[in-house]
Amino acid sequence: ASAGVFLRVSVCVSVLCVCRGLTVGPAPRPVALVVIDVQNCFVPGGENPVPGGAEVIPVVNGLRSRYGADFDLVVMSQDWHCADHVSFASQHPGYSDYDVMQLDYNSQGALCTGPSPYAVNCTDGIAHALNQTLWPDHCVINTTGAEFHPQLTTESEDLVVRKGYRCEVDSYSAFYDNGGFRQTELDGLLRARGVRSLVITGLALDFCVAYTALDGQRLGYDTYVVQDAARGITQAGVDRALADMQAAGVTVIQARGVGRVL
Ligand code: VGL
Ligand code: ZN
């Protein structure tokens, strides 16, 4: 029996955090479950591992089995990179994994600088400077690393949104590339179905989950992030992402354990 998508504010009243649910009302329907980048490349053993990344799989699968009727739609995003993608440290001599480098783009989203084969001479000037974290080669188009994790529940009617396949710009959010130059099809797919709320899960909490949630909220969806159905790359990044999301109006909820609200 489905009890609706409960969204409650937990009130912690003791050191043991005994939490009492305070109902703030069900999420406006239709509700989409959004599963970000639960791919082989992002779990330990993959090319760009998120610590504990595989632990989200039973939580996401459990949300589907317990609350399946409450989700009108399930969307999976898939990081889907060119083999020589600009976000790979291997493309930038002298740089290492997890370094941050500045990438300059013109107003059309062309890459203006760098040793990348995609850089062009921007005669119209530099319009956007992006700080790009450099990653190990990961989630390359049509490789095992880019496939959804074999233990993740998928259904034939799930929608799949691929991102990051423009070689010269990264795309953390499932809605836009990092420069905001181009949209994916996600907003259009959601709007076509009248979706009003997003329940976001997956990897990595401090990158693709957070960017997607911030864009979702900005685009007008009631946006919820399921913290225990997500894992981040660094604790500092997770702390910052949670604070940024909450400041933007995203609601952080739990699927399991003390204070769970789903
Ligand atoms: C991601 C780093 C690089 C993510 C994608 O899914 O969070 N992180 N590409
Ligand atoms: Zn990526």
Automatic annotation (TrEMBL):
Gene Ontology biological-process annotations: pyridine nucleotide biosynthetic process
Record InterPro entries: Isochorismatase-like_dom (IPR000868), Isochorismatase-like_sf (IPR036380), Isochorismatase_Nicotinamidase (IPR052347)
Pfam families in the cross-refs: Isochorismatase (PF00857)
Pathway membership: Cofactor biosynthesis; nicotinate biosynthesis; nicotinate from nicotinamide: step 1/1
Annotated signal sequence range: 1-21
Keyword Transcription regulation appears in the UniProt entry: no
Enzyme Commission number(s) of this protein: 3.5.1.19
Keyword set, alphabetical order: Hydrolase, Metal-binding, Pyridine nucleotide biosynthesis, Signal
Gene3D superfamilies found in the cross-reference section: Isochorismatase-like (3.40.50.850)
UniProt-recorded name of the protein: nicotinamidase
Family: Belongs to the isochorismatase family.
GO molecular function: metal ion binding; nicotinamidase activity
Keyword GTP-binding belongs to the record: no
Primary gene name: LOC109472831
Ranges of residues in domain Isochorismatase-like: 32-255
